[in-house]
Amino acid sequence: MQKNSIVVTIIVALIVGVAAFYGGMQYQQRQKASFGGRQFTTGVPNGQFQARGNLQGIRPINGEIISQDENSITVKMQDGSSKIVILSDQTAINKASTGSKDDLKTGEQVAAFGTENSDGSITAQNISIGETFRVRQ
Q1: What count of other Cβ atoms lies within 10 Å of the Cβ of residue 94?
Q2: Is the separation of the CB atoms in 60 and 51 below 8 Å?
Q3: What is the DSSP letter of 122?
């Protein structure tokens, strides 16, 4: 009789252990899926990073301005490639305070956030001057 109760106790303990392990795995999967949404406390929907305003989840373009005109800047990225960043009247340009297109200078470090166009250029919604953001590739 005592043997049977030991066997039953072991079986119950195994079932509880397996159920707890499975529950923990499911909990962890949900945490991983929602981590991006809580990574930055900016009230960002869908776990997308946004620097300011209503940006649509694109990696920032980091690097040095190598050329510019009235409506765009070209940014040399850390990997040596370059990206054209298109400016609009709605593009927010930030420094320690709000900036303007006149603050964009060749040689300046910038991080541009916006929507990628079909030709690979970016239509900027926000440009931060003097900042770079490390982004996991």
Answers
A1: 18
A2: yes
A3: E
Length of the chain: 137
Residue 68 has a CB neighbour count (10 Å cut-off) of 17
* Tokens, residue 79: 């990997």
The topology under which CATH files domain 61-129 is OB fold (Dihydrolipoamide Acetyltransferase, E2P) (2.40.50)
Residue with tokens 């800047």: 73
Are the C-beta atoms of residues 66 and 84 closer than 8 Å to each other? no
What gap in Å lies between CA 49 and CA 40, rounded to an integer?
Answer: 7
What digits encode the pLDDT tens for the residues 7-55?
888 898 889 888 888 888 887 777 655 544 444 433 334 333 444 445 4
Task: Report the sign of the C-alpha dihedral through residues 11, 15, 20, 22, in that order.
Answer: positive
pTM of the model: 0.42
Rounded to an integer, the average pLDDT of 107-128 is 87
